[in-house]
Every structure is written in structure tokens, then in C-alpha cells.
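Please study the protein below:
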Amino acid sequence: MKLVSVRLVSRLIALASGLLISFTSNACDMHDQVGFGRMLNFSQGQPFAHRQNLSRSSNQLELTHVRTVAAKVDQNQQLDIGYQLPAEYKNASLRFTYGYGLTLTQAEPVMLDASKGTYTLDFVANKPGKNHILVWMDATKASLPYSKVQRINIDVK
């Protein structure tokens, strides 16, 4: 009697583990990117997955500049900020937020009239220490607002 129940229990365990492995492998096939597993068109029917795939492939706002600037107290400094605006973006502007130890000499926001260019930012450091400037590029695409933010570290001596 014990031998029969041990065999029965071991067969049930083997059957249950086989079903569990089969279920988990099928469940994994239904997730991830298009072309993964058996469900090749799964993400095409899912609006969030489709939106995520579109956001990766579309053109993005671009800002280029140095990451760290060495500055001296009470001296005028200039910082070049390159930008690129894909054609589908409109009403683009630059704005800046900065630490208490800095003064910017321009009025904000700065409207961008070209799709590609360089903007020169003038600033003065008021006291020594570490500081920063955040560069914000704002634009609209199909009447939706988009922003890109990058940080520039200012080391004032």
C-alpha cells in the first residue's frame, strides 16, 4: 500500500511541475517586445506597449553643452548651448533655473527661431563653491508639451 501511494504522489508531483513549467513559459511569451515568443503581434494590440515603442523611435529634442564649467567670482562667463529641434516640434524655447550663487544676464524664456543652432548663455558667479544651471528646452508636438532638462555643474573659485 505504501509503495502505491509513494508512486502516485511522485507522479502527481511530476505532472504538477510539468504543468507549472508549461504555464510559465507560455505566460512569458505574451510579454516583452514585438517578435518575442509565440505571440508576435501582442504589443501591437496593447496601446501602452505601442506608445512605448513609438517614443523610442521618434526624434527627440537635443541639447549639447559642457557638463562642468570652472568659473571665477564676479567675472562674466559665457556658456554655449547647442540645440536641435526635429521638424515635428514647434514653439520651442530655452529657459534656465540656477542656484542662488549665480546671476544670469538674459531675459527668459529664449524663443528658438531655428531648428538647429547654438545659444550663448551669459552668467556671473557671485560666491565661491559648487553651483549648477538647469537648461530646459520646451516645445510642442501635435499640441502636446514636451521638455528636456539637462544639468550644468558650475565650480566657482
Q: What stands out?
A: The first strand starts at residue 62 and ends at 64.
